[in-house]
Amino acid sequence: MAEPYTYLDKVAYIGEHQLSNQLEYNLKAYVDYMLLGMGGWQNIERPTSGAYGGDFSILRLVNDPSYTEGTVWETARKDWVYETGVVSYPTSAPISISGIYINGTLYQTGDATYGHHYNYPLGRVVFDSPVSISSVVTLNYSFRDVQVYLADNAPWWDEIQYDSYRVDDDTYSVSNSGAWAVLSNHRVQLPAIVIEILPNRNMKPYQLGDTSQILKQSVAFHILAESRWWRNQLMDIVSLHKDNQIWLLDYNTMANSGSYPLDYRGMKINNNTYDSLVNTSQYRYALCRVADTDIQESLSPNPRLYTAMVRGDFEIVIT
Prior knowledge:
This protein has 2 domains: 4-34 and 192-318, no CATH class; 41-144 and 162-181, no CATH class. The protein is built from 4 helices and 19 strands. The chain has helices at 19-37, 228-239, 251-257, 274-278; strands spanning 41-44, 49-50, 53-55, 60-61, 72-74, 100-102, 105-107, 116-119, 124-127, 137-139, 141-144, 147-150, 159-161, 187-189, 192-205, 213-225, 245-249, 284-297, 306-318.
């Protein structure tokens, strides 16, 4: 048996997710699912008009240098809902994507001519081979009202996109034009919550006879919105969660067992949800308590951007 001074306690392998990353990923999954349970999505069925015109069901051609022209198409709003069996409010449920329409004809993912896959986080359809750029590509789908990001989702840069609901904008239908010229993996659409683990933690012993600890970790929820109403809504939703308990998922176990609901392409590969996974004992990591929350004012340099930061302290017993 190895002596205690030859290894780090509570850290088995440097390549595994440790506590900070486990908490960060869990909070995104939890907030995403919690917002769905509150009815935080919109169903788009062909056709669905925008408030000022346009059609949310029509996809635009994406000029992505990583793909052949004509293979990538996207919707105005990204972050499609992939979860099924959502406890919805009041009675509706998100749409499960059944196929893509090209010039009015429905095609399944495995179609011999128009085979494709979906990238749910980026709101994209990626075809196996190019589709004529003059085609009308439409889709029935659901997107999340609020997009939740981790602070380091994009390692290079992100850009806030205003007016992402304005499908009547002339630049929407023009590839490589206007705000839509920024690829979706670099666009932050509003309203949004950005979750960041803060370098602030304290620990105290949990019990006698071992090295178990009660750990308190600070987390920042950066809220970004185009309206005061959405800023206030998200401040309340996050901050009023004080004293609730959350079961955290073990992302190492999920990775080893292949239980992630999405693959590396962003394509749905099973029906697992945060709720179904966290209610399976083998995937549980630890019980977490929201010990404290407070709202901190955040000044915005842009009069169109309403911001706030909710700081939360999360308590976890580490054995």
